[in-house]
Amino acid sequence: MKNLVVVLAVALGSLFSVNAQDMKMGKTISLEQTKGEFTQKQITVDEGTYTFEIANNAVGHDVGFVLVKKGQDITKPENHIQTAYVTKAVGTGLKQTSKPTALTKGEYVYFCPLNPTSTDNILTVK
Fold first, then answer.
1. Where do the structural domains in the chain lie, given as residue ranges?
2. Who contacts 104 (Cβ-Cβ below 8 Å, separation ≥6)?
3. What is the value of pTM for the model shown?
4. How far is CA 54 from CA 19, 73, 119, in A?
5. Where are the alpha helices (DSSP H) in 44-101?
6. Would you call 84 helix, strand, or coil by DSSP?
7. pLDDT for 42-92, tens place per residue?
8. Which CATH number applies to 28-125?
9. SS3 state of residue 23
10. Which residues contact 53 (CB under 8 A, 6 or more apart)?
11. Are strands 42-45 and 106-111 parallel, antiparallel or unpaired?
12. How far is 109 from 53, CA to CA, in rounded Å?
């Protein structure tokens, strides 16, 4: 009986350790901006935690990244998913990342007000 308890404790500990590591590491969604647009207009991913990596491909000035749940007013910063903001403006020829961002099922709009890009870029989380 004692051995069974030890085995269960080790198994549960491993399970929680792996889940915590997955949440910490997450996955990366890489997006590229060119002058006035994102090169990827629609993306579909599974529910989970993601870091956004934004590349500035010859835009000629700094760019950023904004993510908003579809249907919300994108002009209001309180509707922006702030963890998805890049941690620093992205200079020409460079890449920057966001903080890990938990995405739940639904649709999101992404855009860059600095570039500026259209607001019809859709991220679908299934």
1. 28-125
2. 47, 125
3. 0.79
4. 26, 23, 16
5. none
6. helix
7. 999 999 999 999 999 999 999 999 999 999 999 999 999 999 999 999 999
8. 2.60.40.420
9. helix
10. 28, 29, 30, 31, 95, 96, 97, 98
11. unpaired
12. 16
Structure tokens, 70? 């579809």
Query: By 3-state DSSP, what share of the chain in percent is helix, strand and coil, each rounded to 5?
Result: 25, 40, 35
Model confidence over 68-80: pLDDT tens digits?
Answer: 999 999 999 999 9
Residue in the block written with tokens 């570039």:
115
Closest by CA to 29, choosing from 59, 65, 61, is 65
Structure tokens at 30: 């890489």
Q: Residue 68 is encoded by which pair of tokens?
A: 């908003």
Token pair 């934004």 is found at: 54
Q: Please report, for residues 47, 55, 77, 103, the alpha-carbon distance to residue 124 in angstroms, rounded to integers and kept in the order given.
A: 9, 20, 21, 10
Asked if 110 contacts 66 with a C-beta cutoff of 8 angstroms, the reply is yes
- For residue 102, give both structure tokens: 């938990």
